[in-house]
Amino acid sequence: MRDLMRWGAAAFAALGFASLASGNALAAEPVRIGAFLAVTGPASFLGEPEKKTLEMYVDRLNKQGGVQGRKIELTVYDDGGAPDKAATFAKRLIQSDNVDIIIGGTTTGTSMAAIKIVEPAGVPFISLAGGIDIIEPVKKWVFKTPHTDRMAAEKVFADLHKRGLTKVALISENAGFGKSGHDQSLKVAGNYGIEIVADEVYSPKDPDVTAQLTKIKNTPGVQAIFNFGFGQGPAIVTKNTKQLGITQPLYQSHGVASKDYIRLSGDAADGVRLPAAGLVIADQLAATDPQKPVVSAFKADYETAFKSEVSTFAGHAYDGLQIALSAIMRAGSSDKAKVRDEIEKTSGYVGTGGIVSMSPTDHMGLNLSAFHMVEIVKGDWKMVD
Amino acid sequence: MSMLEVEGLSKEFGGVHAIEDLSFRVEEGHIHSIIGPNGAGKTTLFNLITGIYTPSAGQVRFDGRPIGGVAPSRLAAWGLSRTFQNLQVFFNMSAIENVMVGAHLHVDRRFWPSLLRLPGSVRRDRACRRQCADLMEFVGLGPYVRAEASSMPYGALKRLEIARALAAQPKLLLLDEPAAGLNATESREIDQVIKKVAAQGITVILVEHDMKMVMGISDHILALDYGRKLAEGNPAQVRANPEVVAAYLGAQC
Amino acid sequence: MAKLMNARSGGLALLALVMAVSPLGFTNAYYYDVAVGALFNAMICVGLNLLIGYGGQISLGHGAFFALGAYASAIGTSRWGLPPLAALGGGAVLVGLLAFVLARPILRLKGHYLAMATLGIGMIIYIVLKTEAQWTGGPDGMGVDPLALGGFVLATDRHWYWLAAMLLLVVVWLALNLVESPVGRALRAGHGAQIGAEVVGVDTSHYKVLMFVVSAVVASMVGSLFAHKNGFITPDIAGFHRSIELVTMVVLGGMASIYGSVLGAVLLTLLPQVLAGFDDYEAMIFGAIMMGTMIFLPKGLLPSLITQIRKRAGGRS
Amino acid sequence: MAELLQYLFAGLTSGAIYALAGLGFAIIYNASHVINFAQGEFIMIGGMTTATLAAAGVPVPLAALAAMAVTMLVGVALEKFAIEPARDSDVVTIIIITIGASIFLRGAAQVVWDKEFHALAPFSGETPIRVLGATLMPQSLWVVGVAMAMIAGLWWFFNRTLFGKAMLATSFNRLAAQLMGIGVKKVLLVSFALSAALGAVGGIVVTPIAFTNYEAGIMLGLKGFSAAVLGGLGNGMGAVVGGLIVGIAEALGAGYVSSAYKDAIAFVIILVVLFFMPNGLFGKKGVDRV
């Protein structure tokens, strides 16, 4: 029986929990930043650069002596894009790792799940996901850095409006990002005099979407197609559109604002328009653009460090970290309530995503001017406005 | 009325007749043996009688009722039970549990009392366990009452199946080669068991290769060859039948 | 000692003891959170083991029943204003009916065909949950209110831990009752030798159907609790991965071993937390552990362990 | 008419991809009655190896050969170190082992490669072929053609070569095969090597259409399993027909019913078929031996 008890204790306690316990308090209390990101899973090409960016800058800052003489301690967990895992890791960051602030939530789903944890716990939380539900209605402790899917839709519709195209076919990915973008598109289309005449979806890993596009092609009056999704889906949509000989202009969302999309789509991407942050077209920004030095520097940093092209997602993480650290510096401590107040007071911060000015009613602080409409010409971005 | 009536029974597998136009009767209280060389269709016949196979033609009546299309589990409720040549033992259970499954139709098997372990249900189950232990004793498995089925030797498993079949309290018991793989002493013990079973008024159909046993205990014998009836009668008649001797006994003795 | 593991009272007492003592090692609420997840999984796996381990029927779709329970509670309480227990019960009844209707045709299938059919049903439910956004909130999921029982709100992980621990004891007790009853014997017999069971009067398909329903209902009820506890659910909990995870817990812990399921569920819930620091190597290590366990302990952790102990103690007892 | 034809083409493209995935399941099942849930990862490894080698300037045919070799090596290692030692275990145990293997291989792929999507140039250009107002990409014909060639090759292997016949014999009765002097271990090893190679080929021809990344095997494995079961396990032709049915059902479902429910429609069809044909479309009916 005594053996048995020992065995039971070993199984339940030692095997698991003992190894969970992490380091104790260090001599000089560090600033603890926690992150839960979709480093694996379908959103991994968002989460991966986010993680790399956070690690690179935290490392660099620590080498320079940290923040106000305090080291920065970064803890990153991989939620695989699963909301229930994200909730657990958020809890772990708050209760076990005692972080001062949380950056993360690569996807809207994981961010929403974590909100349930951070709000009652009272920990500042800067999400890196697009969904507008994250900050609307405003939640006391929750902020976000990327543009919302609604803004992307608005930017696209504004461009369509300008070109006099009003009848639009929507095709979206039947998963978090695409679904939320789809819903927001339907909501704001009317404001720009746009009528959605076809509405199709595809699954994230479909190898072929010609069936959906054929339906769109045969819908009378379609003047343009708008695709909301990320990953390989939009590239397949783009290729299939060309295959079917569809001549109406194709719009993509900011979810594909990376060279990967162009690489995967090949020639078919020519002429595709999409809203993108300044980071994507750093070299094309006017010299007077206040974002130019920031995005150029970040782009250079990232690309030298990782030998791969910078993406807007990496930029979201960069912005999140900068906003968090400057708030901590302004607050003069890592006191959670003070830091939260300072984040809310962020004003005129020039980031990779745009110029951020938050307020008690706006926990993102970006406006449509943060987006540029770009067109793909001969395999490269060309700024349209 | 006969306990079992088989009329014009045929079964074919992909064009091959395993049983062809077979008719016979089994009288109540008899020990009725079926003999024949390997592949004569004895086991197929058992599978037809117990509802595991559906006949290609003909029919089987048990206690006056046709069994066509009736599930084996219903037939068991009618009073039909059997053992298997290639064991059908529950190796994932203990020996006594095997026998207790045999008593399935006679225990309280309602879901809620079982789930909640109601006292009455527990008490009845204990009684069932005692009866099954007695049955094991009866077939000579006394030493194995606490054993796991997976740890028992072949001969014991044969008897375990008999005990399980008896626990179902059948009117008709079909034994498929109960003495196969047993040594002479064990065979004699099985002999005695079958006689005791018959003495309780249970009709027995026996498939067996051990001629000494068959001739010794049978009231009636049916000889099969290639799925057809070769001969029928009491042991003396069958033994004297030249076709049987040629087809089967000749080869053996 | 091995006998003690099998004996109902000894095993239950040990389980209770371990669950009572474990919190001594919990230094903060997050430990409770993980532990509650482990206990929830343990309950589902005990139910699922009745089907898989004792009944010999595989299911790659139980994640969907779990999710249906969760959504029943989420929709019932937040959209229709039902009391939580009514929503939980209603969900369980609906899932039970659904499982019952599906079970007959499905359980005629064998082996990999059955695996495919259950997988297909799980996927269909997953797609419905993902698509019917007006009810379920779509892929981004929906929020669920905390569990309030007659004015008492289960707000902290500590409360949840004790509730889950008590429920697990009840579930284990009920499962042990069932396994050792005539119903459980009939079920096991159908797995051991189907025809052998049929000819003594066991309607084997009846018991398979029964266990399919029972395991689905358990998953549904735990799903309801999970929804309240987590506060937020998405269709992912109905997905293929969730179903596979549950089966893995059962098989890893040991098929046809109630306590094995508890062990398997607890270890596999903790493992990703332990591996969280391994970054990119996490998946490799996880996969390797899964393979290694099944290769070297093909009967699962607990049964193999018991065999080992028996072997060691063999000479003495 | 053109519309229907376009849907059928779409279904054919996806369906041929699923069929290729399903074939791998069929081969291993044939030799061992094991369902290898890591089959999708074979496809992924084939695609990833070819794509990265091609990107590094290796000619595609050479890259493809290398990819097949690499994948075969993985397949053989999987059999040798994971399946062989557990050969006599329960079906479910082996399922869990192969699922563990798929997680392991996925994890390894993200370490060896990365998490990006990789593309491969289509073998015969990107000019769509027009048929009666519908269009089809040449690469789709490659996929269909390769699937057909594989069916033919497998038929020849299993019916006309001694070793192929021996493999079939092993699947029917392992003991008898053993008594006949057929090395069961060798048969298992070859079946894994063969299906790994097939998976690699599938991955290579599919990558120009659907791209590949370290997780690409999940979907392909799932659809391949569906195709193999629908067609009847162990029947190569069945797996191909099953794959095409799933692909076409999805395309027609997306076209005429609802694109949100197209995957569900495919699963409903599989379920209905299984209700009426418990061994799939072309599966052998198992007889209980008593």
What does this structure look like?
The complex is a heterotetramer of chains A (385), B (253), C (317) and D (290). With 385 residues, chain A is of the alpha/beta class. Chain A has 2 domains: 31-147 and 293-367, Response regulator (Rossmann fold), CATH 3.40.50.2300; 150-282 and 371-383, Response regulator (Rossmann fold), CATH 3.40.50.2300. Chain A is built from 12 helices and 14 strands. Chain A has helices at 2-20, 44-63, 83-96, 108-121, 149-163, 176-189, 210-217, 233-243, 259-265, 291-306, 312-331, 336-344, and strands spanning 31-37, 72-78, 101-104, 125-127, 142-144, 167-173, 195-202, 224-228, 250-252, 273-277, 349-350, 355-356, 371-377, 380-383. In chain A, strands 2-1-3-4-5 form a 5-stranded parallel sheet, sandwiched between helices. Chain A has a 4-stranded parallel sheet with strand order 7-6-8-9. In chain A, helix 6 (176-189) links the parallel strand 6 (167-173) and strand 7. Chain B has a domain at 87-169. Chain B has helices at 42-49, 72-78, 95-102, 111-116, 119-138, 154-167, 184-199, 211-217, 235-240, 242-252, and strands at 4-13, 16-26, 31-35, 57-62, 65-66, 80-82, 172-176, 203-207, 220-225, 228-233. A 6-stranded mixed sheet of chain B has the order 6-7-8-3-9-10, with helices on both faces. The longest helix of chain B has 20 residues, at 119-138. Chain B is globular and about 60 Å long. The mean pLDDT of chain B is 89. With 317 residues, chain C is mainly α. Chain C is 75% helix and 3% strand. In chain C, the strands form 2 sheets. A two-stranded antiparallel ribbon of chain C has the order 1-4. A two-stranded antiparallel ribbon of chain C has the order 2-3. In chain C, strand 2 and strand 3 (152-154) form a beta hairpin. Chain D has a domain at 19-213. Chain D has helices spanning 2-32, 39-55, 60-83, 91-112, 138-160, 162-172, 174-179, 184-210, 216-231, 236-257, 262-276; strands at residues 129-131, 134-136. In chain D, a hairpin with a 2-residue loop joins strand 1 (129-131) and strand 2. In chain D, helix 5 packs antiparallel against helix 8 and helix 9 (216-231) packs across helix 10. The radius of gyration of chain D is 19 Å and the shape is globular. The mean pLDDT of chain D is 87. The interface between A and C is large, with 46 and 46 residues.
